[in-house]
């Protein structure tokens, strides 16, 4: 089963496209006799310039939810007009074609399987295989972190295992099957991470899981008798009444033994504290991490602020970005508006050697991360760009359910008292 399978056939690397096509063609033609079946899923299959008509013909069964005519023509063939039966706001209906070679379409409604029932069924299946001693190592491409028991977060949540690594951050799942999404930091220039995108929930989720990863690293360091890293969260979005779930605030307010949390009103104090540590830092001292959300609201660190008294803080922030990584001080910051970033923080861009881009215009996507015509970053996906590495498309972890969040915080609180 491959989600977003069109990525394999629409990239810029012709060698990868052609190799993927040959492998898929072989699987589709030969492996049905061996009981091997393929399920391909995608939100859109327009623009695939490698997959052949012959290969598509091997995919007999077709299902399409409401989609543009161009997609409907590819998926449903002569039955594309059946898509007119589905209203624009009818998200639960789909068109089913049992055999594309002799099509006859059927409109149906997708069954609703509530999360509680999903969990019940998955636990039942897991119990069967666990009872047989068959433990899967499959990596699940899911945005719900609790659906992937192999993630570092779920391994701690279910069994207390601290599988984290120092200076390595996990914030989502890569769309490449044979990859793992890791953001690695080192004591070199420009080892800071910049998030740019207009989705506040996606940004807060990414920063939440980055902070949670650092919390787990801190716990592991304490257990190993190592001086733990210091975590500073400056959340200028704290208390903003704009209809989002501020899980970053929940983490900071509840895990005070792990992190130093400052809301917008007290953020200046937090910046002064981490700057003081930066100035006094010696090689034997533990790492310091600054997580900042949202730069567009942080007028006290904006280089072109109309308030002259803020220039000192802007200079300090710039110094932290420039000189911090070499001393073990790393910054993860989000700015929701590329235009504001260019106007207020343009001199800092080169200090962010890592960028995550999402929910921006095509022009900004191209200039920030060399992303061409991919509207999926305005839905579930994002791109990670790191100096010296290819840009990676990934799916950030979504907002965790309340039960998982409460239980995770409770477990961390209990472990902090060991």
Structural summary, described in words:
By secondary structure, this protein is α/β, with parallel strands linked by helices. 35% of the residues lie in helices and 16% in strands. It contains 12 helices and 16 strands. It has helices at 14-30, 53-57, 69-76, 115-131, 152-159, 200-223, 247-254, 267-280, 311-323, 338-345, 362-369, 402-416; strands spanning 2-3, 40-41, 62-65, 93-97, 106-109, 168-169, 172-174, 183-184, 193-196, 230-235, 259-263, 288-293, 329-335, 354-357, 382-386, 392-396. The strands form 4 sheets. The protein has a 9-stranded mixed beta sheet with strand order 7-16-15-14-9-13-12-10-11, with helices on both faces. Strand 10 (230-235), helix 7 and strand 11 (259-263) form a beta-alpha-beta unit. The radius of gyration is 24 Å and the shape is globular. The relative contact order is 0.11. Residues 305-309 have low confidence and may be disordered.
């Amino acid at each position: 089963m491959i989600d977003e399978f069109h990525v394999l056939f629409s990239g810029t690397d012709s060698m990868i496209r052609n190799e993927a096509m040959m492998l898929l063609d072989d699987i589709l033609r030969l492996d049905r006799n061996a009981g091997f079946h393929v399920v391909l899923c995608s939100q859109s299959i327009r623009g695939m310039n490698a997959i052949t008509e012959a290969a598509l013909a091997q995919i007999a069964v077709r299902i399409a939810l409401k989609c543009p005519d161009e997609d409907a023509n590819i998926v449903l063939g002569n039955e594309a007009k059946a898509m007119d039966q589905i209203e624009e706001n009818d998200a639960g209906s789909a068109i089913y074609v049992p055999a594309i070679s002799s099509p006859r379409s059927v409109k149906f409604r997708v069954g609703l399987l509530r999360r509680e029932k999903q969990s019940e069924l998955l636990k039942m299946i897991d119990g069967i295989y666990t009872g047989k001693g068959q433990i899967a190592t499959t990596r699940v491409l899911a945005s719900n972190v609790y659906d992937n028991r192999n993630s570092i977060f779920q391994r701690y949540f279910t069994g207390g295992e601290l599988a984290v690594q120092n200076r390595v951050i996990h914030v989502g799942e890569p769309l490449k099957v044979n990859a793992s999404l890791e953001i690695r930091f080192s004591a070199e220039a420009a080892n800071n991470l910049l998030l740019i995108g207009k989705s506040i929930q996606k940004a807060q989720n990414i920063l939440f899981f980055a902070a949670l990863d650092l919390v787990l690293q801190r716990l592991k360091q304490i257990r190993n008798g190592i001086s733990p890293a210091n975590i500073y969260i400056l959340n200028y979005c704290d208390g903003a009444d704009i209809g989002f779930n501020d899980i970053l605030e929940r983490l900071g307010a509840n895990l005070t033994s792990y992190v130093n949390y400052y809301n917008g009103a007290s953020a200046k104090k937090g910046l002064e504290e981490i700057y003081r540590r930066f100035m006094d830092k010696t090689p034997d001292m533990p790492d310091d991490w600054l997580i900042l959300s949202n730069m567009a609201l942080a007028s006290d660190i904006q280089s072109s602020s109309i308030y002259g008294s803020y220039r000192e803080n802007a200079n300090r922030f710039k110094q932290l970005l420039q000189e911090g990584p070499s001393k073990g001080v790393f910054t993860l910051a989000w700015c929701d508006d590329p235009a504001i970033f260019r106007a207020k923080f343009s001199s800092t861009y080169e200090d962010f050697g890592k960028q995550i881009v999402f929910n921006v215009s095509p022009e900004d996507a191209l200039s920030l991360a060399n992303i061409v015509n991919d509207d999926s970053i305005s839905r579930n996906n994002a791109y990670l760009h790191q100096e010296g590495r290819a840009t990676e498309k990934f799916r950030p972890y979504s907002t965790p359910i309340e039960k998982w969040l409460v239980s995770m915080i409770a477990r961390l609180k209990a472990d902090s008292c060991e």
